[in-house]
Structure formats: structure tokens, C-alpha cells
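Example for tutorial group B:
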């Protein structure tokens, strides 16, 4: 081992050689790219390999085979030191607008697959890496490649459609995205005239010869055959990369505790999230022996260093070489490898690492153990073979191996004739998710017999280690394989694998029921096999897996009218104006702004208690951390120390008391991110706990812990009406919260100008004016000294308003105190902990109805969990009450709503602003009425809808005609009645799989109920060369507002969009702007831009009259010489809306956007897993300003709603700490969750006199329609319950996760699980 200073690291990035003589082992490729090389196209999304925003492609030369391996990887986990001899390609190396854009970038952009654009570089890189390996991929390849990339904006459909154009089956008309396939039997001519969202004829062809070549220098380096040991020393740790097995053993002998790091997918997150520090890391990536593969007559030895992707492709290559009976285990392992992690993780994570990390819910260990695999380990004492069995896994993360032993290879045996191996897993999300329970099962029969000779069953996810069900196996062995043997085995299994009710991870009943379900599934599969081998006859069939092929989808919208000028872009599907630069990584987000000289980084210190007095704050140790400059506390604030709303105060930094875990206490500023983070960890806070914290809604109600005012509204007389009805029903539904999970976390940069307390603030916010005001009040300076700049946000969804202003105030305070530029970018975990999300709601209802289905009276009570501060919670509960009629005309209706004050992080605005919770309760109530009456839910919905000229419960008149049109057309387009019959047939034929369908309407009020928030302004400049600069008060967060404003200006000035530029939103160009929220951005700002452009166009009238044939440029130049002002402001008052809560009447909305959605799901009753088979959404948008942008909003909102109602679950510990602080614990929808057929139709021939060009606001309304999937699941569950003899209304709370769904199905297996009494134990997580 060499001593002295470290060696030189040599690798290539985008074809350029990089040599680094002081590589710090703690540096990841991501921070090196972004901070050292200023390649900011690769994004930070989560830092844990869970979101794919930082995907890059790594290429390595393999001397043994003389081939080059290209693979995608997460830059946030790749240690820089691991890259010696590798070539890395980032999004900048794929293509740029300066050189040429790559077909992948072009197609994702032009197919409208980039909205906020923050995930786009990662999508581009995943797809690019796939095409480098397979220029003509299949759809299966594409969905697999994208499975590890999250997107919160698009709903994935356009991304998949853009990538689909590379498929080899592209000749099939279905793959062309046209949807008007010859297979659809709609061959009529009119089909071909339907407008398309994009034209794939214009795409650049993919030319593999044009890609960057692998650097020849690296081939020579690899071939030289004289590799040297590399040692790198950093600030706190060292890294050694040995070249031989002997050297590796020697290193491990002298440093037994040093981890071996291959993919860093286990050690990396531990160091990052748990603060584990390893003084030495050993990287065996260059030890050849760890990568060797040898076949023996008994099976195959696979090198422990092989990545999981390599293991998978190796096993797949072996399959055709052997008879099927020999490869049972191989196939089970391949199946598990398909679901484990994401493509990016599998490309780097090693087989040996996966086994030795011994995770309790490991996907591979149960199947390897059941299959009698073994590992070959080596140490200075020599080699030994260790079987993978129940003795191998000792305790959480610990195996029987000694610390100095190294796993060299893993033996995977062939199976014998009559031997069957299966693996099953159930996870919170179908792909890219840790499993809840996994299992490997193997059974062996002697020839021609059904008597069990040998059986082995292992489970993961049931305790701290992989466990063997030995007693269960003993109960089955030697007996015949039949129902009787198995039903005895279930009881043994229940006794053998017990989970305490407060087990970590929760879901105890579900996990126990899965052990039985999996054994039953294995039972059916084995019976199927025995049947095929003619050992038995006439047995039940196995269960087919859920469908998974994504089908081409339809997006129907209206052509612009024949007489519209070709120059006029309004109403056309124009690409997002910065989609191309988003796809090339050139688009600048807040944290991509280059560092200024002397810039510091700010890290926050947050409370670790939910309800306590602060006794002391000791920063002395933090100030001693290298690089730390200062610690900022509330005492440093020169101006206002609080933000106020409705008379309640929210402290910027807590001073004497904390009221939730995650409340901000102070901030540490240092020269780098790492130092600031280390400094923040060194601040010592001492607390004195206060009694009785309030966490749940029930506790708040019991203690009357509310934020005032509480709201109530009524029409008619509910009490009297209840006396006259045929039937009464009461129920309740709980709706869980939701994390915004904008891809770009809260980010800001404050730059002091240096004189007269002037500040430039670059911040990712929806409400620049609020940030400006908050900073000015905090620093006690006038607003004219503070300029907020917002270029774009990487998503926001309501979460970048109130908390962002507070964070900006703290960051500005630090900049003011140190007089240095200050950057603050929250890590994903901090962001999720601090910022709050959607309000969880408990809704209770009592409904009175007639036997003919008419609902006569309803009384609804809503309780929202508001968290520790008011924020916008009162406005949320108001909007809840204003939407509780949804589409239904209920003559007697009364509602009460309260915001509960609890010791959880404060919840805030989130797309839909209470409406998704409000209507969910109403629709659940209507569903219950249908179940009680034994009638289809859609009939009950139809009977009760508003018809003809109508009045809402707040006395607002409207016409529901378009809503009813949407309902009728959605039923036709989705072929509702025929499919309903098919579903009933399917459910009769399938015992363990059920289908369900539901159709749900929405009526959503657009605009702010507070009239003053509806105003907007714009400023338009025309320069002498004829180019136009537009600024307005709206902010771009992916919703395409700048694109639409460009279209408005283009129409009004009669010039092409290419002459119009929008740079940013800034408080210095348009002052006092309102937030971009309430689906009102385009309505308000569009009118303001229109007003400014009309003023300018009118001013140019005399110039045009003088020279009618002149060009636009000649007119603008002439205007300057004629002294005509070429700059104008535009203004729009907005509608004067109001709501009077005393009189319970008002006009809080300008108009309604209507939509109807029909979804069908297929459900696996044994595991609670489901697929959305098809979704049809019909929306009344008036006349769309930009159909591609609007359809993107519809699909994106629907998928976010699907997440809210079926997938996303926030978990808090009993002491109020958020457990789900990143994508590995909190699952947002991924590509695997997109409906397999996803059709969107815009209602034709509709208009809306209340908004610009007759359009309608569309950002929020459709989110609620994700609930159609929830109700489809509930419909399928009802069919499953009927099999167990259960009928009538039942409760299913939202989200309908696999756990809740499976338990609600009440299969014989879930019924075997003894129920746990609430209150008899301390649960792992709270039910807030």
C-alpha cells in the first residue's frame, strides 16, 4: 500500500479528460459535476438514488471480453473515486442547442414530455443509455429504463409516447400514437383528420454512428496490464482501490471494519442520511476474481462483484442452453432482479453486496436461501464455502461471516426434474420500491408423485432478518401436495412467523396475511405444474399476473377554425417554450446559478421535539467546525420576527418554544454545503418536554384545539328533511395527507448588492411578491430595496408560497448579517420534514335519501389536520365547504369544517386546495347510498346531478349543461355499459382477481374567493430591432404560463412567437403581483398581456397607415424615430369575487371547469396489488389556448390524484417525527402506475365568456378525478368481499394502498389473522 499523498484519478467526462489529484472520497460525481465542473444539467432531486434526476451514463472497457459496457447510474450515489478509467456522459454531452440536439432530447421535448423540466435530463439520460445498448428497443425495454425516473408534472404518458417513437414496432399504426389503429375497427376517413399533439414525421432520425466514441486512451490504460493500487485521502476519510485478491485480503485483515464499496447503494445512503462515517473505504472494483463466472455440472458460480444487471443478463443467456427443469431457480432469481430497485441501481449494485448487507426485506436472499445457494468466502485463513440458510442471517444487517472475510462468488445451483422454485414480493409501489414482504419457495417431488420429498420456504420483511419457515416445511414434507396438507400448513405458518403489533414498519396484519397468500399462490402454481406433468388432473388454474403492457392512448381536441391565420398560435398544440433547453440541461434553475465570489451556504437546524420549551441553544461546537462562518438565530432579526395570518403568528425561527418536529430554530452558514451540514449537526439544543402533544384529528377535537374561525354553511332544513326520508345512513372516511414532492426542493440565492441595503433574491417561488415583502419586513427595509427573480421552478404545486417566504427571510437575514451572498437549497429529507403538505381530513356524513335514489338531505362534517401554525388552513376549510355539493343538487345540505391545531409540521396549499378532500367525502357518501340501495353508483350520481339552470348552496347561479355533456360523452367514449357487463363476467370467472370500474364527475370553481387576488399586470417592451420582451406577474412552474403568454402576445401583436421572449418574473418589472395559484394564472396574466399588447398595437397604427406593406421591423424602427413609446403596461382587474360567511352566500368563483373520469382497475385480492387498466377523462376546457399544455395539466393532475388516493402515505412516529422523508419511503406514482390506456378528450364546441379567448383554468380541477381509481378499487373490493359473503357498505380509507385494499377484501387468509386491539400496544406510526 503506497503512502504519502494520494494518487491521480483519471477519467473522461463528455469526451474530455479529467485528472483530479485531490479527490475526496466523500465527493460524489453529482457534486463534482455541479460544483467543480459547472455542468448543472445533472440535477439533485433526492440524493439517495430514488428519483433518477441525476442519471448519467457510465462506460467502461472490459479487457477480458474487449467490449465496452454502457450503463445508466445515479450520479448522487457514485463516488468520484470509483470512476478511475471510466467515461461518463452527462446530458450536456448528449446534445445542446449550441451544437446539435440529440433525437432523444428532441422527441421528449416535442412530444410534450417536459413541463417543469427538472426531471427531463434524467429521463433523457436513462433513455440515451438504453439506446446506446439497443438502438431499437421494445416498449418493455423503455418502461424498464424509465422505471427509476420520477416525474411529478406530466403523468409520464407524453414521455413514454416520445420514447415510443424509437421502438422497432414503430410500423404498427398503434405505436404511432395516433390511436386510430386499423385494429380499432375505426377505419373511416374522418379519423385521419384528427389533430395530433405532435408530428413524428419531423423528428431527426437516430444515428448511432454520431455518438461520442469511447476514449482510446482509456482502452490503452485498461489494456496496459500493469494496474496500480490507488489511494485517495480526503478531509475525513481515505479510499483504497486494490488490484489483486491478495492485496484485498491483506487490506481487509488489517482493516476488518472497513466496508467494501462497489455500487455505494448501501454504504452511500447510510453515510448521507444516517451520518455514518467510515475512516477507510475499500473499493474492490478492479479485483478480477470478483467478476469471474464459472459453470459446473451442478450450477454456476457468479462473481460477487458482478452488478445485478450483469447477473440478470448472464442468467437470461443461460436459460436457452439448458432444459427448463434445470433453470427453475434461475428464472425465479431473474424475476426478482426485474423488480429490485431501479435500472440505475441494478447497474451498479453488486450481487455480493446485496447478500451481505442482509436487509430484512431483501428480494434476493429468500429465493437464494430457498434454492440452496452458497457463497465462497476468502480471508487470510483461506477459502470456505458457506451455505445461505437460516443460520447465515444472524440479525439486522449482520451475517455469520467474520468481519475480515470477503465474499468472492455465489453459487446458484441447477434444479432437478420435479423441483419447482418461485419467488413472490409485495411492495408499496410495483417498481423501484423496497418490498413489504418477499419470499422464496422451493419444493421437490420424486418422479410421477405428488408426495413432497423436500421443501424450503424463506420470507423477508417479517422481522430483523430473512427467516426460514422450517416448521411449516416440516408440516408439508413427505405428505401429498393438496388442499388438506396446505390448509394445515397455513395454521403452522401463522404460529411460526409472529410479528409483534408494534413491529418497525407497521402493516403487521397485512404482512402476516401476505405470508399465507404467498404460500397459497405457490400452492396454485405447483398444482398447475403437477397438472402439466400429468401427475394430477382437473386442478384449479394458477392466477395470471396483472396486465402490464402500456397501450397507445388518445388525446382528442379541436382543430383551430379554418379561417384562423397561420401566424396565430392560439389554440394550437405548441411545445413548452423552454422544453428543448430543459431536455439539454441548459435551462437554469435556482441552484444552477453560478457561485459568486465569497458565497456561503446556509443549513437549517430543526427541532427534534414536537412540543417542548427550548432551554438552551449551544452553538460553540458548531462554530469550531472547519468552514463554519456564523450561526444565525432569532436574536439577529432586525425587523419582524413573525409572519401573521388571521391574527395568528408564525415565528421565522423559534425562540422559546417548539410546536412540531422540524420547526426551524437557527441556521448555520459555512463555506460549503458539507461544512454547513456538519455545523448544523453540531449545534446542541436542550429541551424540556411539555405535556400532552396533540397529533391526530381525534385528539384535537377532544381538546378543542382549533384555529378560528371555523366555518359552517347550510341550505334548506336538514333536521326536518331527515324526518321525511325513506332511509338514513351515516359514515366516515379518512383522507391521508400528501407531500408536494416537487422535483426541485426549496432553493434560493440571496445576493447583497453592497450598498443601501439592496438585495437581489433568486428564489424558486410561486409568489415573488410575498417573498419580497417578507424579506423587507424581516430586515426592516423598504420593499424597493428587494428584488425577487423567478426564472422557473422545478415544480411547486402550492408548496412554494408561504414556507418559501419564511426560508427566503432567514437566508436574507444571513446574507445581511455576513454581507456575503447566501445560498440555501434544502435536501429532500429536510424539505419533506419542514414544509408540510396537503391537509389530512376526516369527513363524517349523515345522509337521508329516498328508495328511488334521490338524496334529499346531507349533513357533512370536515376536520382538517392543519399542523402547528395557521398558514392557509382557514382558506382551505372554506374551499372545502364551498365544494361539498360537487355535481349534486341536494336540496337540504349543511356542512361544518374546522382546521385542527396539532403538533405536526404545518400543512399548506396543495393543488386543489381542499377540494380533493371535500369531494372525496361526498362521492364516498353517494357510493354508500348506492350500496345500501343495491344500485349501480353511476345511476345514483345521475339522478342527483344538477340539471337545468341551477343554484349552488352559496346561492351562485350557473348552468350545468356542459357538465352533463361531459358525463354523457365520457360514458360513450369509455364504452361504459359494455365494459360494466364484461367486468361482471370477469368477476364471476375469477376468484382471486377482481375488476372494478367507476365514473366520477367534478365541478371546480376557478379563481380566488378573495377578490383582490384576481388582479394582474404585465409590462411589454418592443425594441428597435422588432424583438419583443414580455414580463408579467405569473411564475413558470411547468404549467406553461410563459408559453401561453407568448401565444397571447403573438396573436395581439400579429407577429410570430419567435420574435417574443420571456426571460423571468421579477418584482422590479411587475410589482405587487398575485400568486400563481388557484388555476387562475393564465386567466389573469393573459388578460394583462393582451391589454398591454393591444395598447402597443394601437400606438403603431399611424406607422402602419404610412407604410401598409412594411415589415414589423420597419414599423418598430419608424415608431422610434416618430417618438412613439414602445413600452406599455397592461392591467386586468379580475372578477370581483367574495363570500359572506355570515349570510352564507356569495360569488366566490368566476366560473366552473367540469370534468368526468371513468377508470377501470384489475385487483389481485391476495396481495392488494392493482393495475389501472384504462382511464378516460372528458374535460370541458372552453376553448383551449394550448391543447398540448392543457392535456399535460390534465394528465399530470390525474396522476397526482392517483398518488393521493392510492399510493402516497405519510407516516409519523408516535413522537411526531415524519418517517417518510424521501422517495425510498414515500412513493409517488412512477411509470408503472400510468393507466395502461390513458385517454383524454377535450369537450368540443364549448366556450367560456369569463376568461381569455374563451378558455378555462385547468391546473387543479382534474386532480380529484384520480379518485375514480380509488372508487374502481373499492368496486373490485366489493366483488371480492361478496365471495366471502360480505355485502353492504364498508369503509375503505384513502389512500387505498395494497395494505388497506388487501385487508378490505377479507379473503379467507386475511380472516385468519388475529385482529390487534387498538390501545393494547404502541403503534409504529400514528394515524393522523
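The residue assignment follows.
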Amino acid at each position: 500500500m503506497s503512502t504519502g499523498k494520494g494518487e491521480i484519478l483519471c477519467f473522461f467526462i463528455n469526451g474530455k479528460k479529467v485528472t483530479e489529484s485531490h479527490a475526496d472520497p466523500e465527493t460524489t460525481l453529482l457534486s463534482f459535476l455541479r460544483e467543480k465542473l459547472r455542468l448543472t444539467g445533472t440535477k439533485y432531486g433526492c440524493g439517495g438514488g430514488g428519483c433518477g434526476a441525476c442519471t448519467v451514463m457510465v462506460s467502461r472497457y472490459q479487457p477480458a471480453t474487449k467490449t465496452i459496457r454502457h450503463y445508466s447510474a445515479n450520479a448522487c450515489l457514485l463516488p468520484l473515486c470509483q470512476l478511475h478509467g471510466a467515461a461518463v456522459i452527462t446530458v450536456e454531452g448528449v446534445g445542446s442547442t449550441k451544437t446539435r440536439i440529440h433525437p432523444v432530447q428532441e422527441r421528449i421535448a416535442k412530444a410534450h414530455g417536459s413541463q417543469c423540466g427538472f426531471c427531463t435530463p434524467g429521463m433523457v439520460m436513462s433513455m440515451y443509455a438504453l439506446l446506446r445498448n439497443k438502438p431499437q428497443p421494445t416498449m418493455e425495454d423503455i418502461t424498464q429504463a424509465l422505471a427509476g425516473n420520477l416525474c411529478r408534472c406530466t403523468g409520464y404518458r407524453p414521455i413514454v409516447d416520445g420514447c415510443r417513437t424509437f421502438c422497432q414496432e414503430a410500423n404498427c399504426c398503434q405505436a404511432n400514437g395516433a390511436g386510430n389503429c386499423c385494429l380499432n375497427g375505426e377505419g373511416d376517413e374522418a379519423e385521419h383528420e384528427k389533430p395530433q399533439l405532435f408530428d413524428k414525421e419531423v423528428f431527426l432520425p437516430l444515428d448511432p454512428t454520431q455518438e461520442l466514441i469511447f476514449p482510446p486512451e482509456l482502452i490503452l490504460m485498461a489494456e496496459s496490464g500493469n494496474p496500480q493500487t490507488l489511494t485517495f485521502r480526503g478531509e475525513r476519510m481515505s479510499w483504497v482501490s486494490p488490484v489483486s485478491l491478495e492485496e484485498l485480503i491483506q487490506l481487509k485483515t488489517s482493516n476488518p471494519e472497513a466496508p467494501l464499496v462497489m455500487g455505494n447503494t448501501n454504504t452511500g445512503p447510510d453515510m448521507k442520511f444516517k451520518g455514518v462515517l467510515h475512516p477507510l473505504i475499500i473499493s474492490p472494483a478492479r479485483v478480477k476474481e470478483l467478476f469471474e463466472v464459472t459453470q459446473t455440472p451442478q450450477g454456476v458460480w457468479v462473481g460477487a462483484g458482478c452488478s445485478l444487471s450483469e447477473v440478470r443478463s448472464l442468467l437470461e443467456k443461460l436459460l436457452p442452453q439448458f432444459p427448463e427443469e434445470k433453470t427453475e431457480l434461475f428464472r425465479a432469481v431473474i424475476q426478482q432482479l426485474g423488480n429490485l430497485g431501479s435500472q440505475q441501481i441494478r447497474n451498479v449494485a453488486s450481487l455480493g453486496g446485496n447478500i451481505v448487507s442482509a436487509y430484512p426485506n431483501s428480494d434476493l436472499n429468500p429465493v437464494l436461501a430457498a434454492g440452496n445457494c452458497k457463497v465462497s468466502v476468502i480471508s487470510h485463513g483461506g477459502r470456505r464455502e458457506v451455505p445461505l440458510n437460516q443460520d447465515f442471517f444472524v440479525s439486522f444487517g449482520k451475517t455469520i461471516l467474520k468481519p475480515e472475510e470477503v465474499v468472492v462468488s455465489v453459487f446458484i445451483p441447477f434444479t432437478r426434474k420435479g423441483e419447482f422454485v418461485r419467488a413472490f414480493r409485495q411492495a408499496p409501489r410495483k417498481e423501484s420500491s423496497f418490498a413489504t414482504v418477499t419470499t422464496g419457495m422451493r419444493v421437490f417431488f420424486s418422479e410421477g408423485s405428488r408426495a413432497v420429498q423436500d421443501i424450503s420456504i424463506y420470507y423477508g420483511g417479517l422481522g430483523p432478518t430473512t427467516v426460514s419457515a422450517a416448521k411449516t416445511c416440516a408440516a408439508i414434507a413427505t405428505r401429498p401436495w393438496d388442499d388438506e396438507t396446505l390448509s394445515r400448513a397455513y395454521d403452522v405458518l401463522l404460529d411460526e412467523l409472529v410479528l409483534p403489533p408494534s413491529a418497525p414498519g407497521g402493516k403487521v396484519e397485512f404482512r402476516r396475511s401476505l405470508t399465507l397468500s404467498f404460500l397459497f399462490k405457490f400452492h396454485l402454481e405447483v398444482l398447475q405444474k403437477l397438472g402439466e406433468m400429468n401427475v394430477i388432473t382437473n386442478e384449479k388454474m394458477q392466477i395470471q399476473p396483472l396486465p402490464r403492457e402500456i397501450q397507445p392512448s388518445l388525446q382528442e381536441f379541436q382543430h383551430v377554425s379554418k379561417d384562423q391565420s397561420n401566424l396565430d398560435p392560439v389554440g394550437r398544440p405548441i411545445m413548452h417554450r423552454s422544453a428543448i433547453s430543459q431536455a439539454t440541461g441548459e435551462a437554469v434553475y435556482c441552484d444552477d446559478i453560478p457561485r459568486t465570489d465569497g458565497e456561503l451556504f446556509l443549513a437549517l437546524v430543526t427541532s427534534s421535539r414536537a412540543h417542548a420549551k427550548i432551554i438552551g441553544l449551544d452553538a460553540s461546537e458548531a462554530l469550531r467546525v472547519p468552514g463554519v462562518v456564523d450561526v444565525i438565530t432569532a436574536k439577529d432579526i432586525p425587523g419582524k420576527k413573525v409572519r401573521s395570518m388571521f391574527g395568528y403568528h408564525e415565528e421565522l425561527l423559534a425562540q422559546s418554544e417548539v410546536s412540531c418536529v422540524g420547526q426551524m430554530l437557527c441556521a448555520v452558514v459555512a463555506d460549503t454545503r458539507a461544512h454547513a451540514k456538519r455545523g448544523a449537526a453540531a449545534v446542541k439544543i436542550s429541551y424540556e418536554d411539555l405535556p400532552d402533544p396533540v397529533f391526530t384529528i381525534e385528539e384535537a377535537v377532544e381538546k378543542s384545539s382549533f384555529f378560528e374561525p371555523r366555518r359552517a354553511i347550510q341550505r334548506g332544513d336538514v333536521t326536518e328533511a331527515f324526518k321525511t326520508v325513506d332511509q338514513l345512513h351515516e359514515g366516515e372516511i379518512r383522507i391521508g395527507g400528501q407531500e408536494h414532492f416537487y422535483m426541485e426542493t426549496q432553493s434560493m440565492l440571496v445576493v447583497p448588492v453592497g450598498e443601501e441595503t439592496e438585495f437581489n433574491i433568486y428564489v424558486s417561488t410561486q409568489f415573488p411578491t410575498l417573498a419580497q415583502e417578507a424579506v423587507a419586513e424581516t430586515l426592516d427595509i423598504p420593499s424597493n430595496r428587494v428584488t425577487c427573480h423567478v426564472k422557473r421552478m422545478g415544480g411547486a404545486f402550492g408548496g412554494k408560497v408561504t414556507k418559501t417566504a419564511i426560508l427566503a427571510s432567514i437566508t436574507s437575514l444571513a446574507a445581511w448579517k455576513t454581507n456575503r451572498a447566501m445560498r440555501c437549497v434544502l435536501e429532500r429529507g429536510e424539505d419533506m420534514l419542514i414544509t408540510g403538505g396537503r391537509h389530512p381530513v376526516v369527513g363524517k356524513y349523515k345522509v337521508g335519501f329516498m328508495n328511488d335514489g334521490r338524496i334529499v338531505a346531507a349533513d357533512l362534517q370536515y376536520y382538517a389536520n392543519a399542523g402547528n401554525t395557521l398558514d392557509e388552513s382557514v382558506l382551505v376549510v372554506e374551499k372545502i365547504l364551498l365544494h361539498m355539493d360537487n355535481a349534486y343538487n341536494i336540496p337540504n345540505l349543511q356542512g361544518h369544517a374546522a382546521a385542527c391545531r396539532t403538533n405536526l409540521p404545518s400543512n399548506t396549499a396543495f393543488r386543489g386546495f381542499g377540494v380533493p378532500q371535500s369531494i372525496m367525502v361526498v362521492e364516498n357518501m353517494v357510493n354508500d347510498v348506492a350500496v345500501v340501495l343495491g344500485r349501480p353508483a353511476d345511476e345514483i350520481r345521475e339522478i342527483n346531478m344538477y340539471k337545468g339552470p341551477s343554484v349552488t348552496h352559496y346561492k351562485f347561479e350557473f348552468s350545468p349543461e356542459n357538465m352533463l355533456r361531459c358525463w354523457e360523452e365520457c360514458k360513450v367514449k369509455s364504452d361504459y355499459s359494455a365494459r360494466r357487463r364484461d367486468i361482471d363476467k370477469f368477476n364471476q370467472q375469477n376468484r382471486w382477481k377482481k375488476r372494478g370500474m367507476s365514473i366520477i364527475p367534478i365541478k371546480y370553481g376557478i379563481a380566488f374567493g378573495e377578490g383582490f387576488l384576481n388582479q394582474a399586470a404585465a409590462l411589454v417592451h418592443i425594441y428597435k430591432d422588432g424583438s419583443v420582451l414580455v414580463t408579467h406577474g405569473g411564475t413558470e412552474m411547468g404549467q406553461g404560463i410563459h408559453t401561453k403568454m407568448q401565444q397571447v402576445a403573438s396573436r395581439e401583436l400579429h407577429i410570430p412567437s419567435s420574435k417574443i421572449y420571456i426571460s423571468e418574473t421579477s418584482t422590479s418589472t411587475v410589482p405587487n403581483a398575485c400568486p400563481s395559484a388557484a388555476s387562475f394564472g393564465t386567466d389573469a396574466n393573459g388578460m394583462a398581456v393582451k391589454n398591454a399588447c393591444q395598447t402597443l398595437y394601437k400606438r403603431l397604427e399611424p406607422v402602419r397607415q404610412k407604410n401598409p406593406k412594411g415589415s414589423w421591423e420597419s414599423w418598430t424602427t419608424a415608431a422610434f424615430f416618430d417618438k412613439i413609446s414602445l413600452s406599455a403596461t397592461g392591467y386586468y382587474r379580475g372578477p370581483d369575487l367574495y363570500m359572506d360567511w355570515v349570510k352564507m352566500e356569495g360569488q366566490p368563483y368566476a366560473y366552473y371547469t367540469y370534468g368526468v373520469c371513468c377508470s377501470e382497475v384489475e385487483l389481485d385480492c391476495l396481495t392488494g396489488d392493482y393495475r389501472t387498466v384504462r382511464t378516460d377523462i372528458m374535460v370541458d376546457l372552453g376553448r383551449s389556448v394550448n391543447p398540448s399544455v392543457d392535456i399535460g395539466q390534465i394528465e399530470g393532475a390525474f396522476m397526482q390524484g392517483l398518488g393521493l388516493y392510492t399510493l402516497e402515505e405519510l407516516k409519523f412516529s408516535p413522537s411526531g417525527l415524519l418517517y417518510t422523508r424521501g422517495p425510498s419511503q414515500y412513493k409517488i406514482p412512477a411509470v408503472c402506475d400510468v393507466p395502461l390506456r390513458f385517454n383524454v378528450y377535450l369537450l368540443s364546441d364549448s366556450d367560456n365568456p369569463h376568461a381569455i379567448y374563451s378558455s378555462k383554468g385547468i391546473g387543479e380541477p382534474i386532480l380529484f378525478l384520480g379518485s375514480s381509481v380509488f372508487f374502481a378499487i373499492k368496486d373490485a373490493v366489493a366483488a371480492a368481499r361478496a365471495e366471502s359473503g360480505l355485502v353492504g357498505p364498508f369503509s375503505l380509507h384513502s389512500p387505498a394502498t395494497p395494505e388497506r385494499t388487501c385487508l378490505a377484501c377479507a379473503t379467507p387468509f386475511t380472516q385468519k389473522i388475529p385482529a390487534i386491539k387498538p390501545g393494547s400496544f404502541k403503534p409504529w406510526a400514528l394515524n393522523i
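The longest helix spans residues 508-532. Compare this with the pattern of hydrophobic and polar residues in the output above.
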